[in-house]
Amino acid sequence: MTSGIKTDWAHRLARRIRHISRWLGILLGFVFTATLASAAERWDIDALMSALSRIDSGEKRYTEIKTMALLKEPMRLSGTLSYRAPSFLEKHVLSPFEERYTVDGDSLTIENPGKGIKQTLSLASQPAIWAFVESIRAPLAGDLATLNRFYKVNFGGSERNWLLALVPTEPDMARLVRFIRIRGSGDRFDRIEIEETGGDVSVMTIEHQP
């Protein structure tokens, strides 16, 4: 009788051990798979460029604060930013005055209705302006090669909070701008900061609708 009880207890214990072992194996398999997935989805500049390159078009409102030595108080501007892949980019200032900068391919058009100005020029003829345009357009197009052409590129952070730091290497641009910092989350830009060599600073905050 005692032998039967012991045998039954041993069988139950063996089943329990097998049960625990099976679930432990599943748990370890899940953890291992999650670790591999995390490694595969590691967020770096290539992942950022890939995410941004999938954007076909978009329009966002922005607010820009410019702190300049010539002004007693910072200047506040607002308007819209528009993009269409792969090479159309437009900044439309709506306040405190109207001004529009439109880039399409190699062409840049500047319009100021209040002053009766409309001028079109080639980016290739203006290296510093071209470099500045590509600080925004190249990332949006996922074009790291073009970005590297004009800047020393540094990247850090996570998918939810990344930083793209650009130091100009194009000589004309380097004489004007010390650095450009772009902060964002996932496939969107949240903030663009530009510091000029003379100390003037521009900070643009991009609005995202919920």
Descriptive report:
The structure is a single chain. Helix 3 (127-140) runs antiparallel to helix 4 (144-150). The longest helix has 39 residues, at 2-40. The protein folds into two domains: 1-41; 45-206, Clam (outer membrane lipoprotein receptor (LolB), chain A). The radius of gyration is 27 Å and the shape is globular. An eleven-stranded antiparallel sheet has the order 6-5-4-3-2-1-11-10-9-8-7. Strand 7 (151-158) and strand 8 form a beta hairpin. The protein is built from five helices and eleven strands; from the N terminus they run H-H-E-E-E-E-E-E-H-H-E-E-H-E-E-E. With 210 residues, the chain is an alpha+beta fold.
Strands of the widest sheet, in order across it, are 6-5-4-3-2-1-11-10-9-8-7
Q: Poorly predicted ranges (pLDDT <50, ≥5 residues)?
A: 16-40
Per DSSP, the total helix count is 5
> How would a textbook summarize the main sheet?
11 strands, antiparallel
Level-2 CATH architecture of the largest domain: Clam
Average pLDDT across residues?
Answer: 85
> In the CATH scheme, what's the topology name of the largest domain?
outer membrane lipoprotein receptor (LolB), chain A
- Measured as a percent range, the helix fraction is 25-40%
Write the layout of secondary structure elements.
Blueprint: H1 2-40, H2 45-53, E1 57-67, E2 75-84, E3 88-95, E4 99-104, E5 107-112, E6 117-122, H3 127-140, H4 144-150, E7 151-158, E8 161-168, H5 171-176, E9 177-185, E10 188-196, E11 201-206
Antiparallel strand pairs: 1-2, 1-11, 2-3, 3-4, 4-5, 5-6, 7-8, 8-9, 9-10, 10-11
Helix pairs in contact: 3-4
